[in-house]
Structure formats: C-alpha cells, structure tokens
Write a structure and sequence with these properties.
Layout: H1 5-14, E1 16-19, H2 25-39, E2 49-52, E3 68-72, H3 75-79, H4 81-87, H5 90-100, E4 104-114, E5 122-125, E6 133-134, E7 139-144, E8 155-157, E9 169-171, E10 178-180, E11 191-193, E12 200-204, E13 209-211, E14 220-229, E15 233-234, E16 246-249
Antiparallel strand pairs: 1-12, 2-3, 3-4, 4-14, 4-16, 5-13, 6-15, 7-12, 7-14, 8-11, 8-13, 9-10
The structure holds 2-oxoglutaric acid.
2-oxoglutaric acid (AKG) binds near residues 209, 211 and 222.
C-alpha cells in the first residue's frame, strides 16, 4: 500500500489525508466487538484507562459500562491480540513508513466512542500538545468504526494549520483534556471529514482538530493509533505518566523514546 503522489502532497500541504476502505468490514467488526467486550467487562486482560461521558445516564444503555467516552493505553496493543494486529496492520504501517521512515514506535492506542445523544465534543487541540517529544511530526491514525458524519461528530480539521507550529493550550478540567487557547478557532475554520467504517485518516500531530457532540441516535466509534519515529526524544526530563511507547518496526535507538 502506498499513498499516491497526490495523497502524499495533500498530507504535506494540508496536514491530513483520508484513505478510504483501508480496513475490511470484518476487521472493523472485530475491533468494534473487542472494544465492547472490554467496556462491558467481559474481558480484563488488557490495562487501560477509561473516561465516562459526563452527561450519560447508564440506565439508558444496554449495559451500564457502555457510556464510555474513551479508553486508552499503549498496553492494549501489547496485550490484546485484536488491538495488536491493528497496531501492526500492514497497510497502516506502509503509509506510516512512507510518512515517517522505517523505524517506528507506537505512541498511542485508544478507543474514542461517542455514544448516541450524549457523546460530547472534543474541543480544538493539536495532538502534539499532549506529548513532549521531538521531532514534532508524529502521525495520528483515526480509524472510523461507524459511519462518521457531521451530525454524530466526525473529525473536523483546520487544513494547512499544522505549518503554524505548536499553539498555546490550557487544561479544561484535568491535565489530560486540553484545548487551544492561543487562537480562536471555530467550526467555520474547519473542513468536516465524513468517513465510512474502515476508512482511515492520517493526521499530522500539529494539525488543529475538533469533533462535535453526537446529537444522533447512533454510535460514532473510532480507534486511534499514533506513531512516531523511533529516534524521537522526550523534551522533558520527566515525561507525563500517560506517555508510553511500544516499538513496532525497524530499529530501536538507545536514549530515544
Ligand atoms: O474521536 C474524537 O472524537 C476526537 C479524538 C481526538 O481528537 C483525540 O483524542 O485527539
């Protein structure tokens, strides 16, 4: 799998590219079902942190564990066979290698679930702001597991703004939920990226993006993977506790992340 010249140029110029139908329907079903097994407690072998939707009434869901907004942990891709297969997916890694070179570490593995009606917004942010890492060019992979639409909170990006560098962010309620405060982006600055299940967005870590609340009756589930070059280094002496990495391809380098 290779991005065409046009797709590669779009990634460089706009900071993102969507590859349609990269995952098969069976792969999408497998990942979606595995997520559900964890959120309802039928599986426990993989360690991850979970965050519930603040406005959800658990009684209105088929299972009280369902109104999870996100669950996250690089360990998921180490310990769970389905998430490990996804993190090592040949075609995803082909594109990442084209963008980042052959030596790769996984930086993030997360299920991002916007439940019907109560799925909340994710405010404008750059993924790079969460990670004190140089070079600042890791790639976030956002995999649609359901049809993602403007109404249920598809990804919205500010095209080309990754070239502005890191913009000031502040924490909203806690350190792991931050938003851009140095600029006043709104929805008119964005392009909506509706996607079918199995389509995959490759996004530069400096690209500002936003997802709206889910106001529909259907789920908007996505899976996120993020990859950096194995030669990346932490810029802080003590990186935040949520930063963890897993080597996935090519060489490892002493002293690097
Ligand atoms: O999937 C979403 O709604 C937003 C996810 C996102 O932008 C992130 O976690 O960085």
């Amino acid at each position: 799998m290779r991005l065409s010249d046009q797709q590669f140029e779009q990634y460089q110029r706009e900071g993102y590219v969507v590859v349609e139908d990269l995952l098969s329907a069976d792969e999408v079903t497998e990942v979606t079902e595995r997520i559900r097994e964890y959120v309802v407690g039928n599986r426990t072998e993989s360690e991850f942190s979970r965050m519930l939707e603040p406005d959800a009434d658990p009684d209105t869901f088929d299972h009280e564990g369902e109104p999870v907004r996100k669950f996250e942990g690089v360990g998921m891709a180490r310990e769970d066979d389905v998430f490990a297969a996804l993190a090592n997916h040949d075609e995803i890694l082909d594109v990442i290698e084209q963008l980042q070179g052959p030596n790769l570490d996984l930086l993030r593995s997360a299920g991002m679930l916007k439940p019907p009606q109560v799925g909340s917004e994710k405010k404008f942010h750059q993924d790079a702001a969460y990670y004190p890492i140089q070079p600042r060019d890791h790639v976030t992979v956002w995999i649609a597991l359901d049809e993602a639409t403007p109404e249920n909170g598809c990804m919205r990006v500010v095209p080309g703004a990754h070239t502005d560098g890191l913009i000031g962010h502040d924490a909203i309620d806690y350190d792991t939920d931050i938003t851009i405060t140095e600029r006043d982006y709104d929805i008119d600055d964005t392009v909506a990226l509706p996607m079918e299940p199995g389509s995959v967005l490759f996004q530069h870590c400096l690209l500002p993006h936003y997802t709206a609340p889910n106001t529909t009756e259907s789920w908007r589930r996505a899976f996120i993977l993020a990859y950096m070059r194995s030669r990346s280094r932490f810029t802080d002496d003590e990186p935040p506790e949520w930063v963890e990495s897993l080597h996935v391809a090519g060489e490892e380098f002493p002293g690097c992340v």
